[in-house]
Recover the amino acids of this structure.
């Protein structure tokens, strides 16, 4: 085993990789021509690094059926309010119920049950492998995602943390309209006596309260922009993670003495993560029972490395009710400590990461990142630029991921000794 590695050169490799992809293809929205073109180019890079073929797998998705639907949610919420005031509480009750059901299933739970109602696009997953020998006992999969996000308009402000409050305010507004509609329907209070005047306190409450949430509906309607010209370049999220995954493959290709003979290394690039983890779900659908490829696998998902003071071990996705592997979580935490940093265990508070589909398939997984977990003006915005990637952060990330890998190797070495 070599004790010294050029971590600075590794950091520069990751940053150069990210810069090259962004220069060639710009933002890579889920299911877009740019994402597919970038995937083809990155596949060639994978093969160059590993010395082996890169498998490219197409899958279908509806890009705007989940997170991308939020602006539509805001517009339809305004329509529901109009129905409540001008038409009938029955109409607003029906529409608000559909809205909430859709939001829970598609936006909060990533179920994709309504994807068939939307235009379908093609995205791509990639993977390449390096085998230490002919008899493989375990596999380490390093994964990142290739696509980048729509611009989150609410976050590009002096106070990006308010974006969460504004979003919640809009969702609460939908709940309030639904609740008032239920009350009016159940009490037969079906119409306001507007011509005769709003004569009771109840009339005034039923009439005025929904208007309090008009700003929330507006904020939902401008939540993100579909304009790819101002979409996120995705340097941090997540060419940094994909670059680190590729760097690990390069590390073992350049240092074959550090790759145990019974270990397989896979570098994977997932498509359309920003559209509801579509690539990782597709990968699991294709390979869940693929024991020839995934021999006792450990999925080390790498997602967003920029903030030196925020090295995190993600233990699960709160919304998606996933809980990642305790052993890998501990390995990640120890590995961060070993490079002189203070690790933080966090639950992903909003949305999901590519570890969740691996977890649901029954595999050991963890997500590592170096990202401020609070709202920032460079997360999912046009400010996520390659020039702002921090080389010191990428150096430490290289060390951390290598430490995790060595712990996995040691575990299997000790098993072999016994």
């Amino acid at each position: 085993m070599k004790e010294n590695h050029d971590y600075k050169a590794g950091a520069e490799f990751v940053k150069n990789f990210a810069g090259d992809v962004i220069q060639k293809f710009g933002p890579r929205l889920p299911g877009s021509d740019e994402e597919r073109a970038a995937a083809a180019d990155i596949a060639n890079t994978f093969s160059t690094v590993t010395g082996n073929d890169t498998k490219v797998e197409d899958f279908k998705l509806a890009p705007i059926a989940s997170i991308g639907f939020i602006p539509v949610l805001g517009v339809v919420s305004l329509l529901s309010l109009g129905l409540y005031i001008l038409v009938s509480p029955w109409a607003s009750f029906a529409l608000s119920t559909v809205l909430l059901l859709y939001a829970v299933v598609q936006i909060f739970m990533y179920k994709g049950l309504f994807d068939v109602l939307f235009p379908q696009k093609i995205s791509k997953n990639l993977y390449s492998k390096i085998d230490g020998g002919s008899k493989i006992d375990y596999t380490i999969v390093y994964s990142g995602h290739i696509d980048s996000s729509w611009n989150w308009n609410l976050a590009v402000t002096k106070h990006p943390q308010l974006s969460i409050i504004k979003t919640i305010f809009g969702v609460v507004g939908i709940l309030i309209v639904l609740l008032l509609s239920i009350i009016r329907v159940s009490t037969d209070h079906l119409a306001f006596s507007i011509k005769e005047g709003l004569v009771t306190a109840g009339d005034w409450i039923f009439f005025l309260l929904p208007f309090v949430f008009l700003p929330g509906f507006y904020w939902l309607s401008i939540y993100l922009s579909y304009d790819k010209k101002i979409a996120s370049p995705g340097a941090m999220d997540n060419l940094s993670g994909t670059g680190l995954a590729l760097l690990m493959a390069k590390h073992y290709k350049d240092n074959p003495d550090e790759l145990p003979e019974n270990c397989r290394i896979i570098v994977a690039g997932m498509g359309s993560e920003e559209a509801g983890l579509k690539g990782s779900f597709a990968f699991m659908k294709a390979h869940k029972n693929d024991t020839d490829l995934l021999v006792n696998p450990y999925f080390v998902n790498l997602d967003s490395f920029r903030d030196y003071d925020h090295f995190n071990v993600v233990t699960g996705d709160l919304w998606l009710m996933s809980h990642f592997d305790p052993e890998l979580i501990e390995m990640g935490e120890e590995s961060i400590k070993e490079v002189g940093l203070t690790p933080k265990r966090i639950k992903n508070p909003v949305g999901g990461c590519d570890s969740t589909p691996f977890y649901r398939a029954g595999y050991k997984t963890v997500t590592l990142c170096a990202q401020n977990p609070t709202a920032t003006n460079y997360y999912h915005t046009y400010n996520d630029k390659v020039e702002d990637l921090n080389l010191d952060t990428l150096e430490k990330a290289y060390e951390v991921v290598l430490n995790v890998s060595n712990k996995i190797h040691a575990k299997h070495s000790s098993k072999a000794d016994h």
The radius of gyration is 24 Å. The chain has a mean pLDDT of 93.
